[in-house]
Specification:
Layout: E1 3-9, H1 14-24, E2 31-38, H2 44-51, E3 55-58, H3 67-80, E4 85-88, H4 97-102, E5 107-111, H5 126-135, E6 139-146, E7 156-163, H6 170-194, E8 198-201, E9 204-207
The chain binds glycinamide ribonucleotide.
Glycinamide ribonucleotide binds near residues 110, 124 and 125.
């Protein structure tokens, strides 16, 4: 059965665009993007969805009194949209235990570093690249992983390394990591999932035939 992919976004949505392009070129097998949900009504990612006739929704943390109310509402929305796979593509709101347990090993996040480096609370967007440059590492990259209750701690599906160059700024490095790693491994991980090629054994994602 073709899987329904629901993509969660907060910003520009270049990873969403990579997924849309991969879908159009046939890289994503056995799945299609059926809905894009944004934490931010102004996110340009919503335009990308609309330009491709993909259903959209907005859910804002601040519209709910307590975190659990938000967590339950997001879970209900994903169930209503018949999500088989949830992809966090630059989604900057933390997920709670209700949604994580309901979609165990069915939520894939893209992180712009080689986990376990430069990850966990507070490491998102440009901050990740700033930290890598401050440390002076020679290699960074991106990681596609399943989401569990530990921030950036779920089973790793795919990683790709990217070289740091002299004179890199966080912005320049972010762009290179996106182009060389994120926009490739995220669609690849999604396609593997949709074809049931990823098994989670003892918290490790094992990729098979
Ligand atoms: C991407 O670099 C993604 O890896 C990162 O935010 C950016 C979103 O860009 N996500 C995180 O830092 C999550 N911790 P996009 O909206 O253009 O896809």
């Amino acid at each position: 059965m073709m899987k329904n992919i629901v993509v969660l976004v907060s910003g520009g949505g270049t990873n969403l665009q990579a997924l849309i392009d991969a879908q159009n070129s046939g890289i994503i097998k056995n799945g299609r993007i059926t809905c894009v949900i944004s934490s931010n009504p102004e996110a340009y990612a919503l335009e990308r969805a609309k330009n491709n006739s993909i259903d959209t929704a907005v859910i804002r943390r601040k519209d709910f009194a307590g975190f659990d109310d938000y967590d339950r509402a997001l879970t209900d929305l994903l169930i209503e949209k018949n999500a088989d796979l949830v992809v966090l593509a630059g989604f900057l709101t933390i997920l709670g235990h209700i949604v994580i347990s309901r979609f165990e090993n069915k939520i894939i996040n893209i992180h712009p570093a080689l986990i376990p480096s430069f990850c966990g609370e507070g490491f998102y967007g440009l901050r990740v690249h700033k930290a890598a440059l401050e440390k002076g590492v020679k290699l960074t990259g991106a990681t596609a992983h399943f989401v569990n209750e530990e921030c950036d701690g779920g089973p790793i599906i795919l990683q790709k390394a990217v070289e740091i160059q002299n004179g890199d700024t966080p912005e320049v490095l972010q762009k290179r990591v996106m182009q060389q790693a994120e926009w490739k491994i995220l669609p690849e991980a999604v396609s593997l999932f949709c074809q049931d090629k990823i098994k989670v054994i003892d918290n490790h994602a094992v990729i098979g035939e």
